[in-house]
Amino acid sequence: MKNKKLWTLLLSAAMVSTVALAGCGSSSSSSTSSTTPDKVQHMSVAIPTTDIQTLDPAKGTDAYSAWVLQETMEALGRDEMKNGKETVVPAGAQSWNTSSDGLTWTFHLRDEKWSDGQPVTADQYVYALRRADDPNIASQYQYLISGAGIENVDDVYSGKMPLDKLGVSAPDSKTLVIKLSHPCAYFQKLLNFKFFMPQREDVINNQGAKYGSTASGLVFNGPFKIVSMESGSKIELVKNEDYWDKKDVKLQQVTMNFMGDTNEQMNALQSGEIDTMAVIEKEWNDKFSKEKNLVHSNLASPQTGYLTFNFKDKNKLMSNVNIRKAIALSIDRTQYLDIAGGGIGIPANDWIPSDVQVGNQLYRDEAKSPFSQLQGDPKKLFSEGLKELGMNPDTSKITIVDTQAGTDAVAKKQGDLLSAEIEKKIGCNVKVNYEEWKQYLQDGSNLNFQMESGNFWGADYNDPMTFMDMWETDAAATTNAYSDKKYDALIDDAKHENSQAKRIADFEQAEKILLVTDVPFATTYHPSISAFTYNYVKDMQILPFAPGSELKYAYISGKASN
Amino acid sequence: MLKFVLKRFAYMIMTIFIVITATFFMMHSIPGNPFASPKKLPAQTLKNLDKKYGLDKPLSTQYLLFMENLVLHGDLGESYQYPGLTVNSIIAQRAPVSGELGGEALILGFGLGIILGIIAAFKKNQWQDYTVMFIAILGIAIPSFVLAALLQYFFTVKFSILPTSGWGSFKYTILPAFSMALGTIAVYARFMRSNCIEVIGQDYIMTAEAKGVSKVALVYKHVLRNAIMPSITILGPQIAMIFTGTFVIEVIFSIPGIGRYFVESMTDKDYPVILGTTIFVAILYIVSVFVVDVLYGFIDPRIRLSGDKK
Fold this sequence. Notes:
The complex is a heterodimer.
Chain A: H1 2-28, E1 42-47, H2 63-72, E2 77-82, E3 85-90, E4 93-98, E5 104-109, H3 122-132, H4 142-148, H5 153-157, E6 168-172, E7 175-179, H6 201-207, E8 224-230, E9 234-239, E10 253-258, H7 262-270, E11 276-278, H8 282-289, E12 294-300, E13 303-309, H9 321-330, H10 333-341, E14 345-347, E15 357-358, E16 361-362, H11 363-366, H12 378-388, E17 399-405, H13 409-425, E18 429-435, H14 437-445, E19 451-458, H15 465-468, H16 473-476, H17 485-496, H18 500-517, E20 521-523, E21 525-534, E22 537-538, E23 541-542, E24 549-550, E25 555-556
Parallel strand pairs in A: 1-10, 17-18, 17-19
Antiparallel strand pairs in A: 2-3, 4-5, 5-7, 6-7, 8-9, 9-10, 11-21, 12-21, 13-19, 13-20, 14-21, 15-16, 22-25, 23-24
Helix pairs in contact in A: 9-12, 10-13, 17-18
Chain B: H1 2-29, H2 43-52, H3 59-73, H4 87-122, H5 127-141, H6 144-158, H7 171-200, H8 203-211, H9 215-227, H10 229-241, H11 247-252, H12 259-268, H13 271-299, H14 301-309
Helix pairs in contact in B: 1-13, 4-5, 4-7, 5-7, 6-7, 7-9, 10-13, 12-13, 13-14
């Protein structure tokens, strides 16, 4: 009797506790971020190229070295997802404030240490910015700080003034002051760029001429540090225990594998050798979409494909606005996206892409695209244009020459599609010249073309200005010789204006001039980022305006121990 | 013999010098600016870049500066595309990796090729012969990158036996070496087969057989030594060329070799790397041909004798 009672008690106790525990379990699994991290926190990613250019933040133009720097260094700001919006949050700088005229930016730096124990100080940021503006280093991204308007930035770069005249100073070791010669409404959006990472003069002098080509002897102040870099093979990172925010970094080890071949990347993702990868081909996109343990992320990328019309065209054709309008209207953007972009993207019925922000708002929420206002029959418009030029209005007598970027199969498909569309809708002939990338760029700068296709413009920072200042008279002189005083005035105003509302109005009018009135170029499509990540990777952020993916907060949970 | 060697050496130096000069001027005549960027660089940036790399000087001055650096300091310059990376270090670090991989592929290709060729010759017009010739045709017809992609899929995805890519221990070399070897097997198999058949038909082979020499001794002492001559001719330069790497295979398998620098430097218009790699290949090739010529003298007494007679 006694035993039976004891047993029943034990059994019911066991049942109750099981139900209680099961209840706890189910409530915690409903939110992904409270999933328990695995014991092994090792992530493997692919860098989709054969090698990075350099680890010197002042040099190098590829997004891949920028990605490695983003994970191993800490700039004044860091690009992150905050409340569902992509924002540049304070990182190396704890906070900052601007003077009322917007010309003086004061950064209050965090207490930070380098991976060799040395403190991060304000003069290291000054040194870094001076290097970026040094004419002997000839940094190709200098135009970014030039556009931001740092005091004397161009005079220093042309050698007219010494480096110490650049408008950056360190009144004390924890304060950095940047002086601008005009207000820059998007300055905050630049703060995660590699120029705003501190640099160590002693380390760089030690490295000498080979600085940037090897990882040994370098120091880091970011979430991870490099333990080994085997060029052309892989980079090994480990968590940086000296990082100021190390409590938020859960990964212990990251392997970044160089993979320059698309098939290689896809095979590696399939076999689980890498944990995440962006896909650019339709067949792989479809295939991976069906895999149950791969999570698909589809994000708009702030890029626009476009065709350029040469205003200095020797045959005068492209100098006529009706001819340009006719060609712009004849493009079937959906088909173009399918053929050139594998269907991964959005047809571009605008110039400024959808995820670009003005201040904290999405630009496209505040200003609708004027694209639909461009109307007309391509053939009629083209004939009009021919008549205005004093030529025979019969379109079939005309041959347009298009210079297409690239000589591979995809380039050929683009050229074929453009020719077919123009020939069908306008009735003239099209001859396509396929050129290797560097020659294409050279001919472009020399204005040695009639019409150019296959180019893409990508955002350098999260503000419409990065898409608009390229069409100002000075900048467009080596693009297509486009020049419009009204356009220049609008962009100039937006450059010096602090009120975002006024800037939005400026950009709205300017975009209309580009897409409807003058049509100096024709858009094609916006590519998207289509990435697949294994479901055991949590909290990795894919940020369209930042290079690669942000691994700082990522961790592994639920990976089968194999 | 010494006169012969010295004369050939002098010709070697002259040839290398001509190759360097021709490459330098040809390279600069191709349209395209190394710093052309889709981000339409402002004029001052281009000016600073040209000044930094000495591209604003007249071409003849640039040539003389380059030759001065090369001859007096052995310095091939710094890459434009990879700032901080010198051409010398590219060659010193990457070439041995390519050499190791290429060497493995070559040993595999040469060894198997010779053996298969001998078998095919002795079993002429039988099933062994046809099998070897079929393998040879596959090896010549299938591009190495197609084979590489197939092997990569089967052995790393379908059956996860080997790593997809990278460089480290022996297992990383298996798939790439195999992708490269099949073509080599094909070439040497066919070569050996036709040469063996020719040698087998000679009178002295019949004499040896009649004398009762064993099959193995026959093959080794008589057939091999005579039939292998043409294969050695192409083997020499091929050994040298393995240090130039195979671009496609190295990219597909992420091997830190020198191959991609040959190809990518052209599209990047990276002048120092183009020149450096070309000079490297030229020297390797010319030296290897020289070595083969000297080796000939040892392998084939007929050549040595005829040389002396002259």
